[in-house]
């Protein structure tokens, strides 16, 4: 007897149908993976933008809040110069003269000689203060005295009230006394910080960056701080009746005035000494472009000197942007005695 076997298998048509279905499933999975990856990438870009914007705002806010901090020295005892100081000057006489102007700004200007690569149309803001710790203070990481760096010393002894402070790059010349009129008064490092927006983080990379010029030994060093900060616009609140509160805001209070009748404002004094608060506006953007996106928005960064809206855009590029705003009180300037 012969046995017959039944042979089974795929026909060519069945095999082609199976391959087609498999390819469709694979294409769907690939598309899902790519969309998920693209979405994750965009979320990371937005998160970096939000983090950078908030970090820049927090940093500037804290810096402005302590503008004019000179230890035990009362800011109101300082007489403002009759000319607006040049923040790039590093001589001892120039630094002393600029002490009363704890904050100073430049409206859409890149004219300062100690800055480079300043982005056109952005503001520059100068903050003057002393370190919040003094040399040798216990429980702090305050740096030891550095050569050729300016230090501020405030007289605490009553017999030296005629000379309330001294500032010098040679600490051997700082001889004011502490409260007991015997020991030397503490030394605080004097700082001038100039904040500005640069066109690049690293040379030629095209990433707008918040940078700071820091006063050091014999000059300024520029330090990059936050990438993606594209614009900074500042309005300054001016106190006109000496109550420590801003009565009007101006984008460029670098003029002189003799119209204030209050006794605490001297004629021909720059308005900078009367600035008690700041409205800060930052425009942050992604550091990378988003394919298929076009920025058609208009961004309002406060007001111009003439009171009109300070608007920017549409940029018509593929970068996503966000505006950050804050009103900041200058505690040391606003808290001056009447």
UniProtKB/TrEMBL annotation:
- What processes in GO biological process is this protein linked to? type IV pilus assembly
Enumerate the transmembrane spans. 12-34
User: Which keywords does this chain's UniProt record carry?
Assistant: Membrane, Transmembrane, Transmembrane helix
User: What organism is recorded for this protein?
Assistant: Noviherbaspirillum galbum
* Name of the featured protein: Prepilin-type N-terminal cleavage/methylation domain-containing protein
């Amino acid at each position: 007897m012969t046995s017959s076997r039944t042979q089974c298998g795929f026909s060519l048509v069945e095999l082609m149908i199976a391959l087609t279905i498999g390819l469709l499933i694979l294409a769907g999975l690939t598309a899902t993976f790519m969309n998920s990856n693209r979405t994750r990438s965009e979320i990371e870009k937005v998160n970096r933008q939000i983090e950078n914007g908030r970090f820049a705002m927090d940093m500037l806010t804290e810096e402005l809040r302590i503008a004019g901090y000179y230890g035990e020295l009362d800011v109101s005892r300082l007489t403002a110069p009759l000319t607006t100081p040049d923040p790039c000057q590093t001589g001892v006489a120039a630094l002393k003269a600029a002490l009363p102007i704890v904050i100073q700004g430049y409206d859409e200007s890149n004219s300062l000689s100690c800055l480079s690569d300043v982005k056109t149309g952005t503001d520059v803001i100068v903050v003057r203060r002393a370190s919040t710790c003094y040399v040798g203070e216990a429980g702090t990481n305050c740096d030891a005295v550095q050569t050729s760096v300016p230090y501020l010393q405030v007289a605490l002894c009553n017999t030296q009230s005629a000379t309330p402070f001294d500032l010098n790059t040679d600490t051997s010349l700082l001889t004011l006394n502490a409260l007991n009129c015997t020991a030397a008064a503490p030394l605080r490092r004097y700082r001038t910080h100039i904040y500005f927006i640069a066109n690049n983080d690293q040379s030629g990379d095209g990433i707008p960056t918040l940078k700071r010029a820091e006063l050091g030994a014999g000059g300024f060093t520029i330090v990059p701080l936050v990438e993606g900060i594209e614009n900074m616009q500042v309005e300054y609140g001016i106190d006109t009746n000496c109550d420590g509160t801003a009565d009007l805001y101006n984008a460029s209070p670098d003029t002189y005035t003799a119209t204030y009748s209050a006794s605490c404002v001297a004629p021909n004094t720059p308005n900078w000494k009367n600035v008690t608060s700041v409205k800060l506006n930052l425009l942050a953007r992604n550091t990378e472009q988003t394919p298929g996106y076009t920025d058609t928005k208009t961004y309002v960064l406060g007001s111009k000197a003439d009171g009109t809206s300070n608007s920017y855009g549409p940029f018509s590029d593929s970068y996503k942007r966000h505006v950050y705003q804050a009103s900041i009180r200058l505690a040391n300037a606003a808290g001056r005695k009447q």
